[in-house]
Amino acid sequence: MKIIGLIGGISWVSTADYYRLINQGINKQLGGLEFAECLIYSFNYGDIKRNNDSNDWDKTFQMLSKAALHLQDSGASAIILCANTMHNIADRLQAVIQIPLIHIATVTAAAIEKSGCRKVALLGTKFTMELDFFRSKLFAGGIEVLIPGEEDRAFIHQTIFDELGKGIVTAETKARYLTIIRELIAKGADSVILGCTELPLVVLPEDVNVPLFDTTQLHAQAAIDFALG
């Protein structure tokens, strides 16, 4: 079994989900007391948030590259960034390490292509919704992307950091998310990407009547496949 290096703490809530999903997936295939071999480098989310607020991606890159090199030197065979937003620097990070970085958007795009869906609603932080690092992987597969309007994007971004990243889910926030999703479906979206690793806390498959692509689950499965491949 290959050792997976997880870069987490962004947030700890979703990092715990990655750890659980990867271990459950390994055990489902191997049985008994067989579980994942993994290393976790967990950041203080406040440091990452301060970088985000000042748009200082260079500082974030320095922090994550140090973590990735530490995991590589400690025996990891691949790197998983346990957050969609951090993939804004994934290509830069891949260039400084000698092991694969399993890209969450590449994994998600492959699952969407396989499903036959072609026009997806993308929810996530404002970085994931507005920048190219995620959407470009979808465009490369001929997938059209719809994102919420500016006010809704601001609401999603704010609640990810102020609520979901702390493990807080309220009925009011859930209702607003579902309204946003219904509006995007009305505009032609045939599926929805939960493009933030905290979003599965608030939006469940039974909440919508179109396919839901949970990037956390897809990314964790890719880590499982790599570990056992």
Automatic annotation (TrEMBL):
Keyword vocabulary terms for this entry: Isomerase
Xref: InterPro entries: Asp/Glu/hydantoin_racemase, Asp/Glu_race, Asp/Glu_racemase_AS_2, Asp_race
Pfam families: Asp_Glu_race
PROSITE patterns in alphabetical order: ASP_GLU_RACEMASE_2
Keyword presence, Isomerase: yes
GO molecular function, one term: amino-acid racemase activity
SUPFAM superfamilies: Aspartate/glutamate racemase
Alphabetical list of Gene3D superfamilies matching this protein: 3.40.50.1860
Family per record: Belongs to the aspartate/glutamate racemases family.
PANTHER family in alphabetical order: ASPARTATE-GLUTAMATE RACEMASE FAMILY (PTHR21198:SF7), GLUTAMATE RACEMASE (PTHR21198)
Name of the molecule in the record: Aspartate racemase
Origin species: Flavihumibacter petaseus NBRC 106054
Taxonomy of the source species: Bacteria, Pseudomonadati, Bacteroidota, Chitinophagia, Chitinophagales
